[in-house]
Structure formats: C-alpha cells, structure tokens
Protein 1
Amino acid sequence: MCAIVGIYGNDNAARLASIALFAMQHRGQEATGISSSCDGKIYTKKDRGLVSEVFTDEALQYLKGNMAIGHNRYSTAGGDSILDAQPVYAKYKLGEISIVHNGNLINKDEVRQDLIDKGAIFQTGMDTENLIHLIAKNTKDRLRDRIKEALNRTIGAYCFIVQSRSKQFVIRDRYGIRPLSLGKLKSGGYIVASETCAFDLVGAEFIRDVIPGEMLIFDEDKAEPESIQLFEPEFRPCAFEYVYFARPDSVIDGKNVYVTRENMGKALALNDKDKNIKVDMVIPVPDSGVPAALGYAAQSGIPFEYGIIRNHYVGRTFIEPTQEMRDLKVRMKLSPMKSLIEGKSLLVIDDSIVRGTTSKRIVKILKEAGAKEVHFRVASPEIKFPCYYGIDTPHKEELISNNMSKDEVCKYIEADSLEYLSVEDLVNAIGNDRNYALESFNGDYFVKA
C-alpha cells in the first residue's frame, strides 16, 4: 500500500515529487524518501516521519536535477529500521541506481536466499532490495535488459520505478494489482504516481494508466516515454483500493473511487430494505466511511448525520504497525456528537472490519454517548483471508471474520445488528466489466510463486 512517484524532465523534480507524496500520505506514514539525479550523480534523502517533516526547503535544495523518484512507506516486508525506508540506492557496474516499489513480492525469501548463497550482502529487510541485486549481478550491457531479466525472477504485486543517472524505468506487474498512472506536467515533463490525486496537486494532466505488464522508459533523447510490453496483461486490480486504500478523489484504473464507495452504500441500503430496522440517522465512520454512508442515506431516505467527529491530526489506524498503537489512535481520533446521538437509533457505516477491535471501540463510544441502538453496516465483504499482495494482514488469526461467524462478530463488537456487502455487490459497485483481486474475501490467490 505504499505510494510511489516519478518526475521526469522538470527542473523542480524533487519539489514536485514531495508535493505528490504529500497528496498520497494516506498510503504510508512510517517513512518517506526521494532520489534525484543531476550531472551523472544520484542524491537521496529519506527518513522516518511524514512528508512535511522530512522534506524541508534545505532537503529539497540538496535534491538537485530534473528527475526524481519518491516513496511513502507502509511496511508489508522488512522492519522499521531507517534502512528499510525507500528509495533503495546502490552503485554497480553500470553506475548508480535507485529504486522505489509499491507491492509485495511473494517469492522474495526464495530469491533472497539464492542471492545470499551466491555471495550477495543485503543491507535491508525489504523485498525491494532483491531487484537491486538481480540487476547488479546481471551481465547485460543495457540497464533495460538487466531489468527485464530481473523481472523474470520477480513474482507478486509490484509497481517499480528504477532511476539511473539519466533515465527512469517504470514497471507495473502483469496483473495490475496496485495502481499506477501517467500524467503530463503543465510546467513541463512527466509524472507517474500511484494515485491521480497527486496529479491535481502538482498541476498535471492525466494521460492514461500504466498498462499491466508494461515498462515505460523516460530518456532525455526522446520527447515521449518509450513503451515496452514485457508481459501479457492478466488484469486483476485490487478491490481493496476502492474499499479503503485510495483517496476518494482519485480515479483508479478508470473508476472514480468516490462513486464506487457511494455505490457500495446504496447496495447496503437495498439489502436492508426488507429488514424492518428502524433507525433515526445514518452515521459514517470518518473519513473512509463517508461516501458509502451518503450512498446509503440517498438510497434509503434516512437522514445522513456526522455523529462522529474525527481529529484529522491523527493518522490512519489500520496502517499502524501494532495493535496497541491502533487502539490508542482510535481513542484519540474519533469523538461522538453526544447532543446529536443521545437517545437515537443509529446506522453506522464503515468501509471494512479487519481485526474488529476498532469497530468494537466505535460501538462502545457511541453507546457511552447515549445511543439507544447501533446497527453496524460494512461497505465490503467479510475479510476472511490474509493478503500477500501488499496489505498488512499476514496472519489468519488477526482476521476476525476468519475466526468468527457474522453473528459472533456482531456479538463481539456489541452492535445491535451487523451486515456486510456481498462479494457480488462489491464487484457491481466498482463495475463488473473486469475481474478483480478479491483474495481477502474469497481466498483466490491467483498469483502463485
């Protein structure tokens, strides 16, 4: 769920990269980094913390050049060491290289052990470093050929941007699991970013999505990026991008995220139509539950109210690395509107239930504030299976719906009723014109090592 960005052919490359990363801060808050290239040298600045904290004017002045790549970290592999922040930089036979990666490589351990057996020395715990070693150990004369052969040993969900001293190589896996889009900067040059919300902030015009299995090559000798189709596309975009990850103002692979979430809420309302549940208002769990709650209210005719106020100076709870931190942030982040909800029956909509602890605490704070009833609705299906393609749910025991039935979850979170969106309704809400990566909901692990 990391964010990546590449800027090519603009004298303010690093600054624009930092602005794009700021727009995509929701995709990772552990660390951030940028590498720029100037006069045959790569400059890198990375550190723990938020984009606004790391990229001061002094840091951006250091990052010289008209090309830059950047990364916001949300860990699915590796630890919390600063060494595990990206970009990953190295010197090798052809010069200097820097890489950013969004996704998760499912054969990382096997490839890493093979490289270690052949003498490689790893500096980080990240799967991204595998690609550096595969490129460095290759004997081809051109970087593009080394990248191609390295990707033949790379299995999983990935969007890579590889930066040399004068070029950028952008690669999306054949399934297109994680999003990646190409834009044209109004101030000159190109941008590639995980989400289109970054384009709005830097002043870029959307051109198209990077095709699954495609490699784009940005070269100062060519006016437009060169496109090479490395793998035959087997398009399976991640449904969870629409449920939770992406910002609502982004367009992911042609689908407006806000509209898809609104559709999810409408589907929930249609499913509740004959259940004869009497509620006074529809309340979202802010912020990612808002579009679905608006959709539910519009479909059902039940008033929409902001019954929970969010403190926006607290980060996203789902992507916190420990349960203790998630619990603390829920308490800090969400405050009920007691005067509004006291004595009322509420229909509360959230985007998902992963571990259940956040939902339980939300129900508790609403009832402590005087809510008569809390009916919980979830704008996604039950999450029963861990995802190995970039979501931080590595163990089945962490997933409440893997261990409990719907009625048991309802009892655990102490709600008066609980309903989920079906997989079919989720697909219809996003658009049933394509297949989606739904492994968290149905256990279909279509990418195999």
Protein 2
Amino acid sequence: MAFPKFPTGFVFGTADVTRPGGEQDVDLLKRLGAPGYRFAVSWRELQPGGRGALDAAARDRYDRLVDELLEADLRPSATLYAGELPEPLAADGGWLNRATVDAFGDYAEAVAALIGDRVPEWVPVQDPNVGAYLGYGLGTIAPGRRAGWGVVAAMHHLLLAHGRGVQVLRTAGATTVGCATHHEPIWPLSEDPADVGAAKLVDLAWNGVPLEAMLMGRYPRDIAGLADDVVMPGDMAVIRSPLDFYGINYFAPQRIGASAEGDDLPFRLVPLVGYPATDTGWGVVPTALREWLIITRSRYRAAMPPIVLTGCGAAYDAPVENGVVDDQARVDYLEAHLEAISAAIERGVDVRGFYAYTLLDRDGWEAPFTGKDWEDGVGGKYGLVHVDDAGVRTPKRSFGWYADLVAAHSEGAPTG
C-alpha cells in the first residue's frame, strides 16, 4: 500500500478536545502507534473557582494520565485552555475582562507545577479566534455572547493569555511551546467588490489577527485601530513570545459574501458548492490546505517557526456492522490532506507533524465550549474509534489505515 511520504522525524499523532476515558484509551493509542497525543486540560475541572486550590480528584486524574501516556511510550502534548472557562470567571465577564488573563497566568503556573516535569510539548490557548469570534461575537458557542465590538477585547485577551502562558511555561522549564489556531482559506463568493471586501475583512480577522499578533507582534494594519482601547503597553511583546512551532487546526475553506439587506453583520457565510462535503457540510478541498500552507509560509518567511498540523479531520458517520466500521470517506479525507501537506513540504514549507482529529467519537462526551455539541455543524463524529451509547470502543477502518501509515513511515521514511 502506497502512503504519502514525509521526512524522517515527522511526528504523527492524534488530537482530542476531551481527556481520554482511562487505560482503555491509552491502550488504543498504543495500538495505533502514532506517538503524539494532544489533550486539553480542563481549567473548569481542575480549578473550578478560576483561582486558588486545584481540585484534588482532577489533579490525580491528570497526573495519572500523563504517567500512563509515558509508560505507553506516547508523547503528551498538553493544551492549557480549550474553551472550558471556570464559571466564576465566566460570570465576571470571561474574556471581556482583562483580569481573566491574570487568573490564567496563575492557572498556567499551577498546571506546570503539576505535570510540567513530564510533558514535553505545550499549547497555552487553543483556537483563540474560535473562542473570541464565536463565543463573544456570533454567540454560537459558550458563553453565547453577542458583545458587538467587545469581541475585540475578547480576542486580544485570549491572545494575551496565550503569550502569558508561553512565558509562564518557559519559566517553568518547558522547551517546546507553540500554538494551535484554527485557520482556513477564505474565498469570496464572486469577483464583485462587495464580496471581495467582505472576504478580505473575514480573512484579516480570522487568519490575519492571530498570525500577525503571534508572529509579528502587531495587528493587521487595516483593522489595528479597533484594538487601541484594549492594547496596553507591552501587550504585543507578550503575545509575540517566541514559539517553537506554529500549530494549525484545519478542516475546510470558507466562502464569504457581502451581507444581505437587513443583516447585522458585514458578511455572510455561503455554502461551498461544487465540492464533496463531510457529514457536517464542510467542503473537502485538500488543495486549499496545500496552497494556504505555501502562501502563508511565503508571506511570513523567517518569522514563521516550523508548522505542525495540530488538528485535521472530518465528520463521517458509519455504523458498526459485524464488528467493523467502514469509514472509507474518512480514510480518503486523511489521505488526500496528508498528500497536500507532503506536496507543500516538497515546495519548501517546513511542516514537522500531523495530528489526526480525533481519536474518539464524541458521543457521550462534553464538547469543551458549550457542554453540548457545537452548533453549525461542528458536533459530528470525527473519531478514528467509534463510541456507542454504552461507551464501547470499536476502532474504525480509518484507525487501521492510520496505524499502517505510521508503521510504514517509521520503518522506512525518506530523508527528503
């Protein structure tokens, strides 16, 4: 069986937004053979008050999880924040309140003291653009706020928390710290100037803001003035704290049109027709990932550290039949996107790893942002492993394919 080719040292793994269920899931990870495993520490679970003492049971659970991963020869990659904000902080304004950044810094110190001696890789804040724009702009995920221009403060504070987390982790001795940001190509609906302008605005806000802030220590020129009231001296230097890798969570491009009459937003999301789609309606366009990687690397050049695909996957439902889950569509999706990444590497893009999203279907699991499935098609079944209502795990066909890919790479990957 032919697989996409990657350089020696390329890291394969899986990424979950929830913690594993215990030893059975660590055993699954060991069977898969992909050494990297990204998991998120729940701030809400570990420090329910948002400040002060950590929950004893949660401390033990995360402590044990890291030991189990290491005993299985797996490489833990821990994310400090993936959307689970403690209730007292949420009630006090959440990320609209700059004090949340200070609380996050203290929390980062506590987590580093708990498991920092054994976790080799870290992400302080996952998907700050998702948390800000969907949580405080559109209101489609927790906390469900439509804060108007307050979304600018939420985005800035999430990015500032990222930078603060980088600094805290460095002080604690962490040697590999990066980010994991949701990026997607933004395509205009047409060549009409109104559509092109709307797409440019969304691209600047969604892609440009985190990239420019983390890599260049500034906000995109066309929208920088919007943040004047929330940026304090020294903030941008903190956000620009050096990274060992730039993590990209990628799923699909988005098509944007000018707002329709009566809309309260300056843009509208338009269905991406003409391409295959996942169960959640997201278009499958692997070449878009290749081109985005090439263009973005060219744009930022020396400012861009090595890239890691920190999450990439697709939602496809398939039943268990005679103990088998035939999810060939997921195999095709992963293979095509890995081929796109391989092609980008051949064009000179420095990509060091790929984390398949996710290990497990989320049936019976809480999504981190809302306590329920995400809205607008994000709550589908992304797992390499089927999970039924009773919690029984059944590895899918994609699990076997991914295991074979990893084994083939480890046995004889080229050095290109």
Protein 3
Amino acid sequence: MTEQTLSAALAGFAAGARRGPLPEDVAASVRDRVLDVLGLCVGARRLDTSTAVIDYVLEQGGAGQAHVVGQAERVPAALAALANGVLAHSLDYDDTHLPSVLHPSASVVPAALAAAEAVRADGQALLAAVAAGLEVCVRLGMAGYDRATNNSVFFEHGQHATSICGAIGSAVAAASLYGLDEAGIAHAIGVSASMSSGVIEANRTGGTVKRLHCGWAAHAGVSAAQLVRHGFTGPPTVLEGRFGFFEAFLHGRFDPDAITDGLGGKWEVPGIFFKPYPANHFTHTVVDAGRALREQGLDPDEVESLVIGVPAPVVRTVGEPIGRKRAPSTPYEAQFSGPYAVSIGLLGGSGLGASLADYAPERLDEPRRRRLMSCADVVADEECTAIFPHQFPAVVRARTRDGREWTAKVLANRGGPENPLTVEELRAKFRDNARGLLDQDAVRAVEEGVARLPDGFPPHELLALTRVRADA
C-alpha cells in the first residue's frame, strides 16, 4: 500500500473539518480571529500602502465577486484577498503562532472571506475553512522549526514563513470553500506551493514590501483554488519530495511529524497569540516591562540608562542597527524598535497598553521619548534566550540619576494561552481600530454579525457592513 503523502494528509484533514463540527474552542477562536482581522483591515485604511494596493486592485477590473474591506464595490475574489491581506498585515497588529513565529490569520482569513463571498457560503463554512487553513499554515511553519537552535529555519534563510506557509494555508481555506474534494484540495496545496514567497530583509533595513506579503499569500491561495477548479494539478509529493517545498525552502531540513502528529485531534489554532499592541511581536514584552518599571515608581525623567534584554535571535530585529532603533523616522520603524517600545511603557500608552495612536508620526520626535531612546541599549539575555521562541520575553534594567538600579521581567506575552486577552479586550481592540472609520452602528453590526457566524450568518453580508464612512 502506498504511504499517504503529506499533502494528501492535509487535504483529508481539511475535508474532515468542512464536514464538522469544529471543537467548541476552535470555533470560538476562529470567530474571534475573523473579528480581529476585520478590525485590522479597517484600521489600516489610513496607510499610504493601503491606498496603493486598493488603487492597484481597482485598476485591474474584472468580475465583481468579493469586497475589499471598506469599499462599496466588489472586485475579483483573488484581488479582494490581495488587498485585504495587505491591510490585515500592515499594522503589525495581527496574530502570531509560537514557536513557529508566523502570522497565520492575516493571509488565511482574507483568502477565506474572499472565497466565501464569491460562492455565497454561510458562516459555518467560513469558520471551518479558516480553521483548516490556519492549522495547515502553522503546522507547516512548525515543520520548519529547528528544536536544536530554538529558531525557524525559514527565518535563518531570510524567508518570511508567514507568507510562504500562508499561501498554502490560504489555498486550503479557499479550496474548501470552493467545494473541492480531497483530491482537489491536495492539488490546491500543490499549485500554491509554487506561488509561495517572501523575503524578510525589510524587518532590518526598511521598505514597505513586507506589508504586501500576506496579501500576496492570500491572492496565491485563492488563485490556486480557482486554477484547480479549471483543471490545474499539483505534484502529490509537493511538500516532502526531492524537489519539493521543504527541499526548495529549507534544503530538506524539516520535521514531517509536526505536520501529521495529532492532525484533526489536537488543534494548534486556539493557542495562536493575539496581539494587544500594533507592533512587532518581539517588542510587546518590552512595552510591558517599561510599564512595570513605571508601576514600581520609576520616574522616566530620572532615567540615566536602559538595558533591554531580549532573546539573542531577537536582537537583530529590534536592536540593530542600534542608531536607527534609537531614532526611528517612521511609524513602521518604531514598530520594530526596542527602544521605542520601552519608551511607550515608561511614558504610558493608550488602548490595551499601546495603540495605533502611540505610533503616530508626531509621537516619534517627542523630546522625552527621544531622550529615553537615546540612552537605551538592546542586548541578548540568557534567561530570555532559553525561553524563546515559546514566548518573546524581555528583561529591562534601568539606572536613574541617583544611582538606583531598577529591573522588570516579563517572561510571557499577553494574548497567549498563559495570559489571554478577554473577549471584551478583543472587542476593545476592534473598536479602537475602527474608530473614526466606521460609525457606531456599523461597529455594532460587524460585532453582531461575527458573533452569529456559527449560526450561519453570511460572510458577504458581513463584508458589506465594513464600508468606511465617506468623511473618514
């Protein structure tokens, strides 16, 4: 008997999820992620890159199948997925799976929303498709996680696992909604593997292309499913084969058991971390440590020096080059700056502790903030390195002008299983993202529509509710 291929195993799992029912905690988690992504898409509408991708999409023309969040008109489903994926990832506010260190919902949810709207699927079908796509995405990411080094092999190769694995997760979600059978879902995996891409250098030295990654992954997933409907096929050993996905991206270094062990029984989805702050996830505990120091009684104006201890692999993202991290020139650079994060915690942030307002351009040059950043160093901390990447811990040490030493340790992230956000906190995040862009009636309607997805509320009606105010 021929051994089952990895893509066949994943396709069988996705087909089973479609038949349902989903475990209660999985369904609730997916529902919350849909609301989270819709809020992120609305909140990102103010960005220049959002305008750019929406203008690009509208220039393409084509059949009206699905909505870009905030737009009245429909566009082709793959292009709606492209735009919404860009919006979902652009604020660096989207969820994170650990220890794979990828952001699954920003590609999978936009792909599923576009496909669901195109075929007029109901809410239950949407939730099942998103659940399967997310699970596939993070399991592929975990297959590229090296337990010996506690790091992602994708990341070490300069590859953005978020978009690379996200393309395949998106294809699974879209293929499920388009009604493809197990063989068809496997072919969608095989086709989308040739569309996977993403280079992560923008994290270090700038550029806005990273915002495009999840959009491109969502576009690839929807396109792959559509192409399979029209007759394209993929190789059965596309993942594990001699010239397959893992050979191409990871030189054959991968863990197949991470893909198949417990598949369909043990779900990773409920453990994906929500982000409480709109910044690179590595900086979140730095914000919290700064706040903890303030709560200890530390006066930010008396700080003489700051040492931000983080896991060794994190230093290059939030602490190098240190000159740029101490003086970010754009909100995007601030989102990847350890010194900026600690300044938010020390000076006090808004929202759940840090919100979009705290990364506004006018905040970057505030004298108190600039002074704090100028005296901050980012170093590798042994305790943090031992925990990473199961959490993104931080230890911040401060010296004040009177010679006193202050220390705050935050070893577990908010938003994960050890310190989850409440339903009300997630709604507060959604409302903060929607503020000034959706009116209050629309905000309530979207929240109610998402809550009713398990009862079959139609996704196409949900997307229509997100139209941005004309005066926004």
Protein 4
Amino acid sequence: MQANPIFDADLIRRYDKAGPRYTSYPTAVQFHDGFDESEYRRQATISNARGGPLSLYFHIPFCDTVCYYCACNKVVTKVRAKAVPYLDDVYREMALQAALFEPGRPVEQLHWGGGTPTFLSPDQMRELMARTGRHFALKTDDTGEYSIEIDPREADAGTVAVLRELGFNRMSLGVQDFDPTVQQAVNRIQSEAQTLAVLQAARAEGFHGVSVDLIYGLPFQTVDSFLRTLDRVIDASPDRLSVFNYAHLPTRFMPQRRINADDLPAPAVKLSILEATIERLTSAGYVLIGMDHFAKPEDPLAIAQREGSLYRNFQGYATHAECDLVAMGVSAISQVGDSFSQNVKDLETYRLMLAEGRLPIERGLVVNDDDKLRRAVITELICHFELDGDAIGERFGIPFADYFSTELEHLAPFIDDGLVRVDGNRIQVLPVGRLMIRNVCMTFDRYLDTAGERRFSRTL
C-alpha cells in the first residue's frame, strides 16, 4: 500500500502553478475542429477491430438552481419539460452511435453525469436505460460498474430505489460543505439530513459504493468549519471521497462572478485546510489514491492502485482501462480507438445536427505514437506514483533514457527538493511529492508550451 503523503507547506507554495488535471493526454486544450464525423467513424472501426468492453457516458445538463462555484456544462431551468426534447435528441445520437459498434460488446462501465441526472422523472430515467439496453449490451448481473452523480436535494429514498431497479450500483453525492454560511455564499442550500438520507437509502438498496464530493477554498471556509463538515462525512463512512480544490476562474465560468473574491480563504488558509483534511482522512483509514481522491483500503480503486491497474479518464480515477468510452449528450467527450472527441456544447446546435442525421461532434484529436507513449508515462505516475522506464521502453520500442533525456534533466529540481527519486530508469514519487504529482507529470507533457497556463486551474 502507498505510504501516506507528507505535507510540506513551503514546497507546496513553491510548486503551486497552473497545470492540467490529466483526465486525458493530450488534454482537451489540444482538441481541434478538423476532427469530424468521418474520422470518428474510422476510429470506431479501429475500436471494433480491437474488440473489448465499452464504457458509456450520458450527459444530463439540466439543473434546477445554479451553484455559483460550478464549472460544468449545464442548463439552469425549473421547466422540467425541457428534458423531453433533449432526451429525444439523445436517443437519436444513441442510435447513430450504436450502429458504429459491433453488437455484443459488453458495457463494463456506465455513468450518468451533469448537470443533475435526477432532474429526469423516474419514467424518463427508465426509458433512457431501456433504450440504452436495446442499443448496447448492458450487463444484467450487477457486475458492471454503473454509476450516477446525485444532488441530494433532487433525490430521496424513492429515487434511489428506482436507480437500483435500473441497474445502478454506485453513486457520487455532491455535498461541497455543510456550513450554512458557505452554502449561502455559493447558492447551494443543502442540509446534512438530506444528504445522509440518500446515503442511507443507497446502502439499504444494496449499492456497491457511495462517494462524497467536497470542495475546499469556497467563501468563508476555515480549517475548523471544513473539519466539522469532514467529520460528519467520515461518520457517515462513504467508500470514497473527492476533495476538490476550488478554482476561481470567473472570466471563464460566468456563475463564479457571483462569488466575492474577498470572501475566499487566503492561500495560507487553503493550504491549512488541505493539510488538516489529509491528516483527518488518513487517520480515519482512507488511502490517498491521488490528487484529491481518497478511498477505503478495500475499495476497488485502492485495490487497483495496489495491483498496478489503476487508470484515469474524464470521470477521474477508474478501474477499467480496457474500455473505449462512448459519450452522449451535449459537451460529452468520447475516447474511441486512437482518438478523443467532444460533442457540441449548446442544445440548439446539438438538436440541429442530429435532426440532419449527423453525429454532433464539434472537435477532437487523433493521438500519435508520441502521445500514446507520454500518456502511458503520465498515467503510471499519476495513478501509481512510480514509473519503470525500462518496461515503458520495451513496451513502446524506445530507449527510455535517450527519448526522455530532456525531461529527465528537468526532473532535477524535484530530485533536489526530495519530491522524486530516480534510480536508473525507475522514477519514484516520494510521499512528500505526491501532492505535487500534477507538476511531476507536466515534465513529460510536450504540449504545455503551446497550451498556456491560463487554460488550467492551479495544481494545489
């Protein structure tokens, strides 16, 4: 099992800069509009030739109210009827997508995200899952990893029962913070009782795992106030936690303009919250999977990390690296064959393209051999905190030390600061360096000079 991280505030301040989260490599910044439907179809053919299971993602963009911190692609509305034409469009896209893939490829993973997926009515959710089962080979024995993002304000025990009936066995609960002052400042009024009722219902219905999402760095948060929320969450004993660093980017995300920057905790306070959070969670028995994810030692994520099979994709850390990802809905990102692709981001364009019988692809990227090599390097580092360069060299047919000679030289500051140890072609990220793992990965990213730091959040 990985040793617990060591918190060094001075080093963290020194390495705190903007950088990718590496849910993909190359990152979405490199996607371009030269990637079109014909290329996607070619990549689906490559995927079919390789075979293997699939992962499906559905983006449900609707939210009843806006959370001011949110950076997701969403449509804020109280008009539930807006879901009807959108679902009709999703069904059109699903039919187009399903026709590209060999029938019978099992769906090992399925995820509904948003927005708020439970904005849909129970009947609409049943219809969406039924249509999915007609087009794709869903697993009916409860062995797939079928997950959904839940806003506890938009769900109750009845909702949870419907989701379990449909085959969902994992859920992620959005909490962010239980403190009333913080909730008021970010326009997310959500009681502890609401949250725990959904969590308890998930357990009663036999969900395999429940994750809780928290955010630190929100207005009016202090170390003590955040630990009060954290202690309540620990008492509820979720299987996983995601503790995200709030990235205040009001020029990019309009809802964040409603947050008063003067109310945000100072950088030193944020670091203290992070340090206290890591100490409290590891003391409670959780394992730091990487970056901002924690899990119980018996959770599949922790097991995959110990076994060296952990993976990272657009949903974060994952356990099914072998799955091509087919994503549907506005702004959804697919990973098929040797490509990434993203759908258009607005409802009207999405509707018009599907009405014309076209896949609603806006941009994408075909990865080259160098991209695949660097993706493997970054994945090993960000998932397992170590890299066997000889194994990578043998796998890709390259002399590792020669190919990455410049990158290895750039690791010198990390080595000098005790963040990384290099022994021959083996790279190990030490406990004090694990919180700076994004910085270590950036050393191997050949696109950073062209991407520009302004496109990314701070690494810590």
